[in-house]
From TrEMBL:
Statement: the UniProt record of this protein carries the keyword Signal: yes
Sorted UniProt keywords: Signal
Protein name according to UniProt: Lipoprotein
Signal peptide: 1-23
Length: 105
């Protein structure tokens, strides 16, 4: 159930900015306080590439972990999903991309 709610929220957020030119981090979830383990998810439009989303995750990892080096383990390949968004007075389908990573400070 939590996954469906998160997916719906993510779709709503992606629909708001699908044609923007920069990758954005959509969530930072603390998984373990003692070992400082986090999950970070970045999203982007068709204009982003895998490395741009990785850069967005890296920047957020630096924000979360401070100046210390963060260990970043990506969840896998870039994931694509077709969503419907409102552009120039009409609804259209676009591809939205997500990339997740586990961060250890």
């Amino acid at each position: 159930m939590k996954v469906k709610i998160l997916g719906a929220a993510l779709k709503g957020l992606l629909a708001a900015v699908p044609l923007s030119g920069c990758g954005a981090v959509t969530s930072v979830e603390k998984l373990d306080q003692e070992v400082k383990l986090y999950r970070i998810i970045a999203h982007g439009s068709a204009f982003q590439r895998n490395n741009q989303l990785r850069e967005a995750i890296g920047a957020k990892a630096e924000d979360v972990c401070g100046p210390s080096k963060a260990s970043i383990n990506y969840d896998g390949p870039l994931k694509s999903e077709e969503i419907e968004t409102y552009v120039n007075g009409r609804f259209t389908k676009v591809h939205a991309y997500t990339l997740g990573a586990l961060i250890k400070c």
